[in-house]
Specification:
The protein is an alpha/beta fold. It has helices at about 35-40, 75-85, 100-115; strands at about 1-10, 25-30, 45-50, 60-65, 85-90, 120, 125-130, 135-140, 145-150, 155-160, 165-170, 180-185, 190, 195-205. Helix 3 (about 100-115) links the parallel strand 5 and strand 6.
């Protein structure tokens, strides 16, 4: 099992924060994500995709996919990270493009949580986490407003501490957005779910 982080860049045109890539990490461009990396001045270790909407990059290894496929380019990049034994993933350029791909990437995030991986979507003004029968600590330094939403079904045993609207052993329904726009109180917050999946969307100031 690798202790590094697999950084994956999608092709969304949204603003992307500069990644903190360290020795032992892996950086993969999913299709047109290589163009974002080029703008950031960040080198990628490889690119994967069908490149149906952009030319492939030069000077790095490329895994070319058939345009007729059942998985997205970003999902295929995650599979490479799994094959190389990474347990932590950071996804960039995963939101703000097409609605279909944005929704699919939230599914991918929840799927990684279900399989026991650590994964975060990093966007311009938000960090998105998925919790599956797990807990998460959030620092108030990253932002003030947090939405906690059940995903893919009901979530039970939901406990929120260090937030303006706390919960204890509650149940959230995926068809009712009870947990939207909660607020941190200036201290570290804890979010826990005993059974089910939560999407945690932390707005970044």
């Amino acid at each position: 099992m690798r202790r590094g982080i697999c950084h994956i860049f999608g092709a969304s045109p949204e603003f992307v924060p500069v990644p903190d890539i360290k020795p032992g990490d892996l950086c993969i461009a999913a299709d047109g994500g290589w163009q974002t990396l080029e703008k950031l001045g960040v080198s990628s270790d490889m690119a994967i995709g069908d490149f149906d909407s952009s030319l492939p990059p030069e000077g790095i290894p490329i895994a070319r996919l058939d345009p007729v496929k059942d998985i997205t380019d970003l999902y295929a990049a995650i599979q490479i990270g799994k094959e190389r034994s990474f347990r932590s993933f950071r996804l960039y350029g995963a939101l703000g493009g097409s609605w279909g791909h944005s929704a699919a990437n939230l599914q991918i995030l929840a799927g990684l949580a279900k399989e026991g991986y650590n994964a975060i979507i990093l966007a311009e003004n938000a960090r998105v986490y998925a919790l599956r029968n797990n807990h998460l600590l959030l620092s108030a330094l990253h932002g003030r407003r947090v939405s906690i939403l059940a995903f893919g079904g009901s979530a039970s045993g939901v406990t929120l501490k260090g937030m303006r609207y706390p919960l204890h052993d509650a149940e959230l329904d995926c068809f009712f957005p009870l947990g939207v726009s909660n607020e941190l109180t200036g201290e570290a917050a804890e979010i826990a779910v005993a059974h089910g999946t939560l999407l945690v969307i932390q707005e970044v100031l």
